[in-house]
Amino acid sequence: MRLSRTFSVMVVLVTLFMVFFYLTLNPDMGTRARPENIVNHRSLRVQEIDAKTQSLEQKSVTVPPPEVPNMTVSAMLRQTIPQNTAYWNRLLYSGLKKLDEGGDPVGNYSDWSHCRDAQEILQTNVHDISSYPPLFQSFLQVMKCRSPPLLLNQPNKCRSSKGEEDSQTFLLFAIKSNPRNFEQRQAVRETWGKEGVDHSGLRVRTVFLVGTASLDDPDLNPLLSLEAKYFGDIVQWEFHDSFFNLTLKMNVFLQWTLTHCPHVSYVFSGDDDVFVNTPALLSYLKSLDASKASRLYVGHVISTATPIRDPKNKYYIPLSFYDGPYPAYAGGGGYLFSGALLQPLSTARSVIPFFPIDDVYAAMCFMALGVSPEPHPSFLTFDVKVEDRENLCVHKDLILIHQRSPSQTKKLWKGIHSPLLTC
Ligand SMILES: *[C@@H]1O[C@H](CO)[C@@H](O)[C@H](O)[C@H]1NC(C)=O
Ligand SMILES: *[C@@H]1O[C@H](CO)[C@@H](O)[C@H](O)[C@H]1NC(C)=O
Ligand SMILES: *[C@@H]1O[C@H](CO)[C@@H](O)[C@H](O)[C@H]1NC(C)=O
After folding, report:
1. Long-range contact set of residues 120-124: C-beta below 8 Å, sequence gap at least 24
2. 180 Cβ below 6 A of ligand 3
3. With contact defined as beta carbons under 8 Å apart, do 223 and 186 qualify?
4. Angle at 137 between CA 132 and CA 142, to 5 degrees
5. Ligand found nearest the CA of 251
6. For residue range 192-251, what is the model confidence (pLDDT) as tens digits?
């Protein structure tokens, strides 16, 4: 009797001990639905990517403000762009003046939430702003906003599989895309933008640069983050992906590349709907001598352009906004530049006020460094002659061709690689 009572007490004690022990092992039991576990969609996405990239991510979520540039602007810039009363010209020259005095030419633009210029400021400075097209007015409002938050990152893009800093990326394809252009991206991945090492050991990597869809559009972000995870090649920032934000895209891309791919030999900046003959591009790059290789800026050069003053044109620039010719520039459909220029460009971009046309803006930055674009006959950012559109031999010799649909891209790629083709 006594024995069995002692036994029951022991069983109860052991059971209690085991329950207690189990609870210490699982401190979260019963608290699964803690409020901090109900994260919103966006931070969930960042966390998911975080899990893969861990400590590196922390550094890149907020873009550090660029340092006060230590640079001398080439005389070419002041010679080409006149000093006058147009708003942009005034901004440039007041920035250059600050730079000469050792200050920060563009001002404090590290804060994304407080960078908009109030309508009152704009109206005071641009007397006829109300006559500007609405989108152009909204460009002016956010012209000083330069550091959008990063939503999807690929911090290991240019690292080796062991996670080491990689000095071997020969060519980085940096492709301007839009959240909705999945088909274009997929055609690029399957053809000219395919990552890997070519027969002579040169490594090619690809990133797609995207902003966010407009709030009126269906929300593509869940799909985009799956795509980013699956392919590991999408970098996304939180700004509306639109024509007038392409200069912003170029800026954040330069910052990103400097942070994550600083040792890349060459960068190709282009659209997701062009056709690139990657083997021809690589053999051109291999043929360059060292002095040229370090200051390359090459593409289809438009050398004597001036602003379009027709308000109905996509490229319309009001006279009271910018007054002067354009510098010679490489068409934004696709151009190449040296990785060695990334750091200098990153400094130059902080001196040049944002311009609504991104390839003109890029040329202004290169010009601040004293680098002029070099024309190359194999970059056709316009198009080949109509009668040559189906001619594979013509395409085999070209490096870049303007605007091809995803299926045309696949067909062309297959065609120029066909062993049956003799040119
Ligand atoms: C600016 O750059 C020059 C040359 O790169 C360097 O010698 C100088 O120390 C730099 N000045 C500052 C303040 O960083
Ligand atoms: C820039 O603005 C941010 C946010 O307002 C502020 O924290 C920072 O100190 C400013 N930097 C400079 C150099 O004024
Ligand atoms: C550029 O992006 C910002 C941030 O999303 C947005 O407020 C602005 O309207 C966009 N600009 C244009 C012209 O679409």
Report:
1. none
2. no
3. no
4. 155
5. 3
6. 999 999 999 999 999 999 999 988 999 999 999 999 999 999 999 999 999 999 999 999
Q: Does ligand 3 have an atom closer than 6 angstroms to the CB of 244?
A: yes
List Cβ neighbours of 79 (8 Å cut-off, separation of 6 or more).
none
Does the beta carbon of 242 lie inside 6 Å of ligand 3?
Answer: yes
Q: Which pair of tokens denotes residue 215?
A: 């709030």
Ligand 3 atom having least distance to the Cα of 135: 13
Contact 334, 273 (CB under 8 A): no
Question: Is residue 4 predicted with pLDDT exceeding 90?
Answer: no
Query: Does the 32-67+145-416 domain belong in CATH 3.40.50.2300?
Result: no
CA distance 171 to 206: 8
> Is any ligand 2 atom within 6 A of the Cβ of residue 47?
no
CB 127 within 8 A of CB 153: no
Is 320 close to ligand 2, i.e. is its CB under 6 Å away?
A: no
Q: Read out DSSP for 89-106?
A: HHHHHHHHHHHHTTS-SS
